[in-house]
Amino acid sequence: MPLEPLRFAVLGAVRVFRGNAELELGGPQERAFLALLLVGAGRPVAVSEIVDVLWGAAPPRSAVNVVRRHVGSLRRLLEPGLAARAEGSWVVREAGGYRLVTDGDSSDLLRFRALREEGRRIADRSPAQALELLTEALSLWRGPLAVGIPARARAHPAFDAVDRELPDAVRQAADAALRAGRPDVVLADLRQAAARHPLDEPLQAGLLLALAATGHRSEALAAYEAVRARLAEELGIDPGAVLRDARDTVLHGARETAVGPSSGESGGAVSQGAGADGSLADPAHVPAPAPGPPSALPPPAQLPHGIELFTGRAVELDEAFALSGADGAGPGTVVISAIGGMAGVGKTTLAVHWAHRVADRFPDGQLYVNLRGFDPSGAVLDPGEAVRGFLGALGVPPERVPHGVDAQAALYRSVLAGRRVLVVLDNARDTEQVRPLLPGSPGCLTIVTSRDELAGLVAAHGARSLVLRPFDAVQARAFLVRRLGGERVAAEPRAADEISELCAGLPLALACVAARAAGHPHFPLAAVAAELREAHGSLDAFVRSDASVDVGTVFSWSSRAVSAAAARLFRLLALHPGPDVSLPAAAALAGLPVRRARPLLAELTGLHLVTEHGPGRYAFHDLLRAHAGELVHERHTEADRAAALDRLHHHYLHTVHAADRLLAPNADPLPPPPAPEGVDPEPLADDDRALAWLTAEHAVLLAVVEAAATSGQPVQERLACQLAWSLEPFFDRRGHWHDGLAAQRTALDAARRLADPALEARGLRGLARVEGRLGLHSRSVPRLERALELFTELGDDTGRAHTHRSLGWECDQRGDLPGALRHNRFALGLFRTLGDRAAQASVLNSVGWYHARLGEYRRALTHCFEALTMLQELGDRYGQAATWDSIAYAHHHLGRHPHALLGYRNALALLRDQGVPYVEADILVRVGETHLATGDHDGARTAWQQALVLLRGLNHPDAERVEALLNARDGHAGAV
Questions:
Q1: What is the pLDDT of residues 556-588, one digit of tens each?
Q2: CA-CA-CA-CA torsion for 10, 12, 14, 16, nearest 10 degrees?
Q3: Which of 213, 449, 666, 779 is most solvent-facing, going by the fewest CB within 10 Å?
Q4: String of b and e for 123-147 (b: at least 16 CB within 10 Å)?
Q5: How far is residue 646 from each of residues 628, 643, 653, 659, 721, measured CA to CA in Å?
Q6: Please, are residues 133 and 115 in contact by the beta-carbon 8 Å criterion?
Q7: Model confidence at 255, in pLDDT bands (50, 70, 90)?
Q8: How far apart are CA 665 and CA 421, in angstroms?
């Protein structure tokens, strides 16, 4: 009976099939030998080259004999029953080496090349048909080249040469897709290839054009900025002409269709085909972008609430409307209006009122940020943090944000190009803080408030200046009438005028006094004025040179109008480093139970000494914060202040530590020191509650890390390190890697100042992990290697094990799956020795996963089922879900599709209770692939549609990959 035909695969795992049965190839060296013959693609491979691949620079003396044994073993595997020393028909001796006899029917590599060549041949006359051939060619790649052979062998130039064919083919397919008007078909392949070859400019240009042509312009611009920043950082060069032209096409819409207007045929391309180097067609000759799916995010509407009792400023408002083109013409250029003026004069109130009045003229959204330029705590908002916040509001996913403020600002300008957006930059310190936040093209209005005149904006950016002054007597009286009623003010006009004079015409001071008077409607205004006149305060930094009365007097008087306990809390709040404070944090700062702190905050809000800008979240005006800061230093000893900060920092540390244990139960955080008496962490019932709390406190926690690290107190510096490391799972899960980078840098600097090798090792590992997430592998790997050295010197096997896991992830990122498996197996051995069952269970799943990725599916199942049993005993639902996913993946590739679907269902059932939609979507994609393998096209489509809904809800770029799967399955674009 004749044997069934053989099929050879090297575009992915090295495999051989006889009919539908896979042959067992032996160990890594046997696989490497076969892989070398396969990439030889019909040419003889010299024995010296085989020896070099198998052993490198130090082969054994028996190397040639071993090669001969490999040849004999392979011949007998391919032709069972072949006589000893017979050559056979598959592996032949030729030209001093060996050749594997294959063709396009038996070799996936030769089939790939044949399809590429045919696609190239017909591309000019039929781009649609060429696209079909090229997508079939790309589908033959089932992973990185020659998976399963040793990394040393894989580094041989023969494999590198074949590797380079894939991005060339993707560029070729992208060119055909753009001409055929089907860019969605290749978008997923473009994404993957661009991620593997981040410095390949023609490939990146193809990604830009495909994204734009499918209606994802913002992401295209984000991709350009990421490449530009990487070219500058790694090579020290600017983008070349091909990439710049693609960017210009995206920005300016310079598009001519590749099909003649009256031809009626799909082959009438105007532009030339791809050159021999695989370069793309002229960007000017690509089809207009197809409408993309509606954005999951609405246009940003970030303006704070306006003040219903706004009064006065009629002249200034008229001038503001003139600056913003209220006559209907609209801003033809970027208009930056700097509202200068002393603290408390009403700059923010006017800016927000003005912005609300003109918001309808900016349909693409309104952005707002408090830059905290003159915050008495010194916590000035970093421009990078501000621009990243804006990018997130504009729909750019965190993982698409490039590294570095300049690159982020360039992306921000690119995203705003062609849009009409209102931008309010409140409380700016100087021009340099504002500059990265300025739009770069017409159509936007930017309102900047500052105590500084911002002469640099006026000189360099054409800003118009609008300077506020305190209320005059008429305006001040109108303000009081609006707050207290006309009859009451008219009954005591002299008292009203005296109040206005004592408040120096400052709206903030008048608001505080009016709140006090409104709370006691039977108090004569003369009595209020007398109380105010007799009060004494100090606020030297904000005193007007022409004011007859110290403005601090008003706030001193207001703070004395509350209870002693509320006044103490008011003073202590000045020590808080963040932009706002929650009720439990305020209670910790004061050393009080929450139930006692709540009415004290109500007292303070009643007199406008603090504002409750969100449910349970309180903030100061910076003028009042400065006043409280003076009082806390006058009336509290250094020990009192240090104790208050210690309580606050422990409140945050213990709550973050609890959140960390919920989000990453397999991690190894340092346990926090005991909390001071009266400090309790916030109760976090589950990881959903942990994520919600961390999200609300995000900006505060960054400020606390920085404040503790720079306190000069070793105890607080250590606390900053622990806080930063405990935040790592949150930053990683939410993609806030730039914020994580800043926190981890701060922690490593503090650890080094403390001269503690154990802390330095953790700091190196923490910083390396986030650098790896940002693609900065040239930095992350050396840090991890140094951390491993330190953990080894310290005898810290737990630290070594977790660092090996991180090094395994780095290997995975560069396609070294055997290396990833090796590091995880080493970690597994350490965790077993340590008796750490939670970490052991987690890494068992990782070991199983990498066995599956290497095509060793039965070994994968052995490890994963062992992991699953332990995870079920531990009650780790997230770990169980991840392990069921690995099990299902292995079953799928073994052809056990019902088992695979059962595993995926188990994973999804566990995940849907945990609020991790991205992981759920990722598994749904694989569910669709399994349905497709069984011929259940409806089941595949349903799973992919569910995944698409989740990814669109996250505004995640993987949504385009799923759209491509659906469109390819339906046979036409826009079928979702």
A1: 555 566 788 998 998 999 899 988 999 999 999
A2: -70
A3: 779
A4: beebbbbbbbbbbbbbebbeebbbb
A5: 19, 5, 10, 20, 15
A6: yes
A7: very low
A8: 43
